[in-house]
Amino acid sequence: MAFPRVKPAPDGSSFSEALPKRNQDLAPNSEQASILSLVTKIKNVIDSLWLQEHLKCKRLDYIKKGTTTTGHHVADVVVIPKILPTLEAVAALRNTVVESLRAQDPSEVWRMLTNETGFEISSSDATVKILITTVPPNLRKLDPELHC
Predict the structure, then answer these.
(1) DSSP string spanning 109-135?
(2) 70: domain range?
(3) Which residues are in the DZF domain (predicted)?
(4) CATH number of the domain that residue 133 is part of
(5) Cα torsion at 13, 66, 39, 104 (round to 10°)?
């Protein structure tokens, strides 16, 4: 024999309505998903080069936390070589990354642009800026004419 309820059963309809809405708010939209996909591809390529080239790759936090600006299809990835980043080394890294991306997805049109901070790689719907820096002990040794 069961005891009768003291108070009525709670209505779960508000919780059932709020749960899908919260799930939709937390899931990345298509814009964020395309940026994250490109960042992940580039980070995987650079991570595979890490053992050969002594590179360290860091993805900036606003990509992970989903706080990018709407309509701003650009992400930043920081690459820290343990050697001085010469212009030739940056160009070689850029070409290696783009060739690896082309091998992974030959149907995509990859564009690249070199600038004073590193380079940018763009797909049809997202751009990733690869920012090149160096370890602190090398900062005094940098020559603006030789190094990126």
Answers:
(1) --EEEEETTEEEEE-SS-EEEEEE---
(2) 34-141
(3) 1-148
(4) 3.30.460.10
(5) 20
The kind and range of the H/E element at 62 are: helix 61-65
Distance CA 134, CA 85 (A): 7
Q: Is residue 16 part of a domain?
A: no
Q: Look at residues 41, 48, 28, 54 and name the one whose alpha carbon lies nearest to residue 128.
A: 41
Other C-beta atoms closer than 10 Å to the C-beta of 115 total 11
Task: Give the pTM.
Answer: 0.69
Say if residues 108 and 127 touch (Cβ distance below 8 Å).
no
The model's pLDDT over 45-69, given as tens digits with 9 standing for 90+, comes to 887 777 665 666 555 544 454 445 5
- Please indicate, yes or no, if residue 120 is contained in any of the structural domains: yes
Q: How many domains in the chain? A: 1
Q: Is residue 71 situated within a structural domain?
A: yes
Write out the two tokens for 132.
């090149």
